[in-house]
Amino acid sequence: MNGLRAVLVSLVLACTAVVSPAAAVARAAPVAPSWSALPVPAATPPVTVLDLAARGPGEAWATGYEQAADGQRPLLYRWDGKAWSRDTTFPGTAEPGYLRGVQFVGKETWIFHNRTGEGEILRRSATGGWSTVPLPQTLWTYQDFAAVPGAAWVVGEDETGLKVLHYDGSGWAEQSTPDGVRYLMGITARTATDAWAWADTDTGTAVLRWDGTAWRDAKVPLPANSNIHTILLEPNGRATIGGSQYTDGVSRTYLMTWNGQAWRTTDPALGDTYTEGMVRGPDGALWLPVRSDRAFQSKYARVDGRRTTFSYGPERTNAILVKPSALTRAGPALLSFGTVEIYGSKANLMSERLGG
């Protein structure tokens, strides 16, 4: 019996020695996806990127402007799931101006257009045709734009001060804000009766909220001596505020998340990163472009609760500044759009993708 047991033990050990390497390989953790470069047709440098948004894996739009000989010219690029192409079919494509916010309203795409100093909304139908919605008046500055089914807002200033222009699907009306509001720095909306704006007021930065009837102070307990870069609204009711807080002359990034009942504030290890390009990724974490410590590579931060990690884009030969300006979720992937400056030339367009 003892001899038989010894033989069995020897066989088990021999099989383990043979099988273990293969088993170890089979159980190895999958390789994490890395950022890859996507070709983008060049524009006339220097180029500025202002927005990026995706409806899904097969449609994304990027906006901004290029510097023509006689001034700014609007830029519009489309991602079809395989490649970036430049769109020059919209009204005013060859006129001075710029394109800014991209919004998806039902099956349409809406984009704010500054056209020779006049504001309008470009609307692209499901069949691909463009039309325009003019604004009721000209503003000195056009600060931001938001649109959802049944409503759109344009905020800015004219010679009389702050202006909030509201479109209800048939016409425009001017909306009032609470006393003490000097300036609206940004606006975003979840529905026609749930819009948020961040404002400069007599008492500092504040968050306003539209409930379908009036704009009111949302009473958000912002950190002392802080400002707001962006507010990210999600369909599940969650809201995330990204901004900077100043303490002893030093700026640091903070995030505030609303879960429907209370605000939670965190201070991720992001330094003084500007959070306007922040998005919720397909993995459920927050992603945003950050200033890179490598001239030839972009850098991105992933914030998951209290844990912050970083990843780099692909190496770019002779690059002296790689600057992703905006991120968006495109189905299972993340898309970035921005600029890259190659030694000896001015900044031109670049795009990168993670996953998908």
Descriptive overview:
With 356 residues, the protein is mainly beta. It is built from 1 helix and 28 strands. The strands form 7 sheets. It has a 4-stranded antiparallel beta sheet, with no helix packed on it. The chain has a 4-stranded antiparallel beta sheet with strand order 2-3-4-5, with no helix packed on it. The protein has a 4-stranded antiparallel beta sheet with strand order 6-7-8-9, with no helix packed on it. β26 (319-330) and β27 form a beta hairpin. The longest helix is centred in the N-terminal third of the chain and has 25 residues, at 2-26. The termini are far apart. Mean pLDDT is 91; it is low at 1-26.
Q: How would you describe this structure in keywords?
A:
mainly beta; disordered N terminus; 356 residues; 1 helix; four-stranded antiparallel beta sheet; 56% strand
Count of alpha and pi helical runs: 1
% residues in beta strands = over 45%
The major β-sheet equals: 4 strands, antiparallel
Cα distance spanning the termini: 59 Å
Average of the residue pLDDT scores: 91
**Structure summary, number of beta strands:** 28
> Helix- and strand-based class?
mainly beta
